[in-house]
């Protein structure tokens, strides 16, 4: 069987004007991942990334460490099917109707770094409304639409995959959640309970034979844990 390694990007710039940039911690996480892959002697036949900068930067930082250790690294391919959903657009679309019951929401969203717990609670509530499909709006990306795009990305990957290949996919937490939903049948709201646990640069492995795909492991972060540096275990 072949293997697809789903790699969540390193820590992005939460609370900054531009979230889609790796933080210094995110860069370090990607480098540690690359060193770990090199130590395992795990080389990839293909490497694919979504088109977001934090995904591509994670890929290049990790693969550079692999190359420095003497492992081959194929050219990075880009596929927008592995992009994250547009969280800002989801918030803009669903928040107005929630303001009567969430009067502090705007203050929380303006200062998320100073209100991390409140932001997570609010964001989780917004996501639950989004995945329910009961609040879909014309012109806004729906959960089902997002899942369909992720499924198309997986189908393209499998269509070009060869027997027993190792394929790395540098992606995001929401995309991994959509794949969990598709492959295991777990309801979307339960899949997002797992989403909140996905660590930056963690590895989840899928096994495939032809178009048949199964989940083999989820959210491994041993490369970070071995360093005994708790500050490298991040979730956003």
UniProtKB/TrEMBL annotation:
Protein origin, superkingdom: Bacteria
A GO molecular-function descriptor: phosphatase activity
GO cellular component: cytoplasm
InterPro entries recorded: His_Pase_superF_clade-1, His_PPase_superfam, PGM_Phosphatase
Database matches in Gene3D superfamilies: Phosphoglycerate mutase-like
Protein name: Histidine phosphatase family protein
SMART domains recorded: PGAM
